[in-house]
Amino acid sequence: MHQQNQELLEAQVALEVERQRYQELFEFAPDGYLITDTDGKIQRANHTMSQLLRVPQPFLIGKLLTSYVAEPERRAFDDELNRLPQVGRLQEWVTQLQPYGASAFDAALTVTTVSDSTGTIVSLRWLVRDITERKQLEATRLRATLAEMTNQALEAEIAQRKQLEQELRQQTESLHQANTLKDEFLAIVSHELRSPLNVILGWAQMLRSRQLDETMMARAVETIERNAKAQVKLIEDLLDISRIIRGSLHLNIRPVNLVSVIQEAIDAVQLAVTAKNIEIRSVLDESTSLVSGDSDRLQQVIWNLLSNAIKFTPRQGQIEVRLEQVSSNAVITVSDTGQGIDPAFLPYVFDRFRQAERATTRHHGGLGLGLAIVRQLVEMHGGTVAANSSGEGQGATFTVQIPLMAVRMEPSEAQTSIPEKTNAFALHHSLSNVDVLVVDDEADTRNLLTVVLERAGATVRSADSVNEALHMIERSQPDILISDVGMPEQDGYALIRQVRENESERVGTIPAIALTAYAREEDRRQLLKAGFQLHLSKPVESTALVAAVVSQVGRST
């Protein structure tokens, strides 16, 4: 018993020494230590913790640790504390503590649970570390990194700005002239259209009042029609590009013999060909001659391409015009042995107001609009035009593709001109048995397109949103889709993307026309790339719209 008492005494002494050692470690540790109950009420706090919170140790006992958390962090603190029983330990939990009478500081908390023999959590142990200096160091390093990145970005921007400034200096003269031309054009259009528009608007308002007798109504209609025709004549007297920009270019659709059109265009430029002693050769396939279109405008296309070839072909050069059939298209090729096109300029050759070199412009004259007109007219006929050149000094080739007529006729049946009533009659029957789906968020536009297409013989369904259109296509596939681009919620790009994704080999591709007020060249390219077959700019003539639908329905068959 004496030996057991002695061993017990020694154990108690050792335990006291260990307890004292733990107390010293707890009390004088460089970090703050706390013991709280499960609600966060402080039961013990060491000296460092007292210094961090600037509260004497005795006054910390019994206080909730939450009361020393900065106000903006308290809700998050309570949320973390509530989930502690599930996780058992939170490591490096960063929050802000609020010392008494001082500014809040960043603190990293590590907290673990303490359980009794039954596994019940009875208390929490906290390690509190002031990380203000660490945060400051991280902030300093971040600022240094950002400063370095900023310096690099500034250097890159300065280099880019220098390059842009150099490019801008080189383009200033060209851009100034182009802007001047466009400004002058808009001023002329505005001035010349005011008078007839004033008369048309005035009589239209009087007609709406319904207070005119039959004589005055007839006079009003006659005056409106006369001024409307005068307005068209004014525009036609200006550059063709003005009508293209306004979207008011009118097509007289009828069967056209391309052989006659090409021969007439060659005859029209014969004087210029003779003056430069240029040899012009034509290879025309008589069996590939009939298309649906405007013979005058198609002749203008060929004339512009020939004039362009003559302009850039030196004396005693050669020009060749070919007409052949490729698949269901008539393909017209105009090639020359002229100065060619710089490959860097090829993507812009059909842009308005663009020419390869200013010196060339001054030497040959012109505003750089001919090829832009060609592209617009060809696309209004449902076709495409492309340019190709091996480089400067190696000539150029322009290729036009226009859909052939679905119904074959003898070339002699295609007249060079027919009365307007006959043309309207032909359009009236051109879309028989064609199911058209029109998508536009504007009711007036849907109604107008429905009337125009139904008068041409089509069966028309309309939708005011992408979702409604997709439901209609799912129920019954149309022969062709005509869609606006700018619509709320989902636009025309979203529609064509979903239509193309849902198509299968069994169903086949639905021809699609984008009819939109987005009329820039980049808009056209993006829409064609997205999946539309054709881009038409608003406003569009009824005959041009019907011709476009005819071309696409014929192509799909």
> How large is the share of residues in beta strands?
15-25%
* Number of helical regions: 18
Q: Characterize the biggest β-sheet.
A: 5 strands, antiparallel
What structural category do the secondary elements indicate? Answer: alpha/beta
N- and C-termini, Cα separation: 114 Å
Strand order of the largest sheet: 2-1-5-4-3
Low-confidence stretches: 357-367, 409-426
- Radius of gyration, in Å, reads 41 Å
3D shape: elongated
Number of strands: 17
Helical content, roughly?
Answer: 40-55%
Q: Give the overall pLDDT as a whole number.
A: 81
Offer a few descriptive terms.
557 residues; five-stranded antiparallel beta sheet; elongated
Structural description of this entry:
The protein is an alpha/beta fold. Helices cover 51% and strands 19% of the residues. The chain has a 5-stranded antiparallel β-sheet, sandwiched between helices. A hairpin with a 7-residue loop joins strand 11 (384-388) and strand 12 (396-403). The longest helix has 78 residues, at 132-209.
